[in-house]
Design brief:
Oligomer: single chain
Largest sheet: 5 strands, parallel
Number of domains: 1
Order of helices and strands: HHEHEHHHHEHEHHEH
Number of helices: 11
Number of strands: 5
Strand content: 5-15%
Radius of gyration: 18 Å
Length: 271
């Protein structure tokens, strides 16, 4: 399939932080997914159109076979709302934990420029909040597996990866950093969660490529520096060796949808 801008071209505009390049690659252990129904994973930077595309693909695929959409992002909003329903203290705890987790996942521009060796794992309260959000993501992922085992196709908005920590749908607690003994154990357990999820490869990964200006135009409330970092990291992710198809998502939406439908047909999925 033809794309107007390759991941390499995008990444060359926003080179990877050296701390990412120095991290050892994880051994790729894949689960037996031969008996599972197809899974289409839509990945890409914020503003690439994943949510809209997921909605429309499910509507099209549903005409041929049972299909469900699942969001596999961090899910801070959903978990936060559940915590917020706890009487008296819920709203306070919700705002505190969500704020802590968001800052730890995204950081600020100045923190992103620091050397990896200077960075440490967060404190226990923040680490627990981040671990809780990862557990919530794992529960949604198990729901995806349940659907697939029942013969239901799934289109996911995002997909967990165990290659790079941080705000790239990977572990929130970097196993390469130092911290208290308890937080380091949490980081190790969180990494194991993501190893388990990443072992189940999607049938096909649709990687929606945009440039930072397009992303900012669609997500004006996001930080440009964080979007640039996501754009640099996304082309490096392998998703356990799954088949990855790059699509230029800067084009008009109808063209993007038609391109993705063609990709799915080539993988035996009728839309």
């Amino acid at each position: 399939m033809t794309i107007q801008k390759s991941p390499r071209e995008i990444a060359s505009c926003t080179p990877l932080d050296s701390s990412f390049a120095q991290r050892p690659a994880l051994s790729l252990v894949t689960a037996d997914d031969s008996a599972l129904a197809p899974c289409i994973a839509l990945v890409g930077c914020d503003g690439s159109g994943k949510s809209t595309l997921a909605r429309d693909l499910v509507a099209l695929l549903e005409q041929q076979a049972p299909t469900r959409a699942m969001y596999l992002g961090l899910g801070t909003g959903d978990l936060g709302r559940k915590i917020g329903q706890v009487p008296l203290i819920g709203r306070i705890v919700e705002r505190f934990l969500t704020s802590k987790a968001k800052r730890a996942h995204e950081g600020d521009a100045r923190a992103a420029e620091r050397k990896a060796s200077d960075k440490r794992l967060p404190g226990l309260v923040t680490a627990l909040a981040m671990f809780a959000f990862s557990l919530a993501r794992q529960r949604r992922f198990r729901k995806v597996l349940d659907y697939r085992r029942q013969g239901v196709q799934v289109v996911t908005d995002r997909y967990p990866q165990a290659e790079i920590p941080g705000s790239f749908d990977g572990p929130g607690l970097s196993w390469m950093r130092k911290g208290s003994a308890l937080v380091e154990r949490l980081a190790s357990r969180e990494r194991a969660l993501y190893d388990g999820m990443a072992a189940y490869r999607p049938t096909v990964v649709i990687r929606l490529n945009v440039d930072v200006d397009t992303a900012m135009g669609r997500k004006a409330d996001h930080e440009r520096a964080m979007l640039e970092k996501k754009l640099a990291v996304m082309p490096t992710l392998r998703f356990g060796g799954a088949q990855i198809v790059d699509v230029d998502a800067t084009r008009p939406y109808r063209e993007v949808l038609d391109t993705v439908r063609g990709v799915l047909r080539r993988h035996g999925l009728q839309t």
